[in-house]
Design brief:
The protein has three helices and four strands; from the N terminus they run αββαβαβ. With 105 residues, it is an alpha+beta fold. A four-stranded mixed β-sheet has the order 2-1-3-4, with helices on both faces. Strand 3, helix 3 and strand 4 form a beta-alpha-beta unit. The longest helix has 13 residues. The two termini are 25 Å apart.
Length: 105
């Protein structure tokens, strides 16, 4: 299994934590990796709450590492305003240079 596959598998595992609570949104998992170490994880909160990317970014203790990290997310980050602002804007704001997605939206 490749490195990307390993971290995407972890993101899929994390996404399952949202089972039964995210509808009508999908269950999504996110993992943030710096220097081959997971530094943040998150999954989509209940409907109207934070998306997986937001929860993963908030879970990172040393936010300065985000500029040198890779974000693995099971679904392409949203780029529209709904009940929450676009996750793509948050990723850009934190200057996360690499994003690996499992599925396009």
């Amino acid at each position: 299994m490749t490195t990307h596959e390993t971290y995407m598998q972890r993101a899929i595992q994390i996404a399952k934590n949202g089972l039964g609570t995210t509808r009508p949104n999908p269950m999504v998992g996110a993992v943030i990796v710096y220097n081959n170490t997971i530094i943040g994880e998150g999954f989509t909160s209940g409907y109207g709450g934070n998306h997986a990317e937001v929860n993963a970014i908030k879970s990172v203790t040393n936010q300065s590492l985000l500029e040198k990290s890779t974000l693995y997310v099971t679904l392409e980050p949203c780029s529209h305003f709904g009940k929450t602002p676009p996750c793509s804007d948050l990723i850009i704001h934190h200057k996360i240079p690499n994003v690996v997605i499992g599925c396009v939206d």
